[in-house]
Amino acid sequence: MGKTATIPAIRVEPALREAAESVLTDHETLSGFAEEAIRAQVERRQAQADFLKRALASRDQAQQTNSYVPVQDVHSQLRKMLETAKARMK
C-alpha cells in the first residue's frame, strides 16, 4: 500500500452525525465508519457497472445472433431457483 490520501470533509446535519455516532461499535471511529461506508458504496457501484456491462454485452450478442431465451423459460428457471432456495431455508 502506497501513500494515503484524504477525502474532503463533508458537512452534514447534526442529526445525521448523531445517528452515525450512535451506531459505532466499541473502538470504532467516525472516520473508520465513514471509510467503510465509502468502500461499500464504491464496491456496490462497481458491481452495478459490471452488471450493466455484462447485460449490454449479452443483449448485443443476442441481437447479433438472433438467439433469445423465451421469457417463459426465464421465469420458469427463476421460479425453480426460488423454490430451491426456500426449501434450503426450512
Q: What percent strand?
A: under 5%
Tally of contiguous helical segments: 3
Distance between the termini: 45 Å
| Portion of residues within helices | over 70%
Radius of gyration: 22 Å
Structural class assignment:
mainly alpha
Total domain modules: 1
What is the helix/strand order? HHH
Average residue-wise pLDDT = 95
Question: Which outline best applies?
Answer: elongated
Beta-strand segment tally: 0
Identify low-pLDDT runs. Answer: none
Describe the biggest sheet? none
Written account of the structure:
With 90 residues, the protein is mostly helical. It has one domain. The chain has three helices and no strands. The longest helix is centred in the middle third of the chain and has 36 residues, at 30-65. It is elongated.
Summarize the structure.
This protein is mainly α and 90 residues long. It is built from three helices and no strands. The protein has one domain (14-89).
Strand and helix layout:
Elements: H1 14-22, H2 30-65, H3 71-89
Keywords summarizing the entry:
elongated, 71% helix, 90 residues, mainly alpha
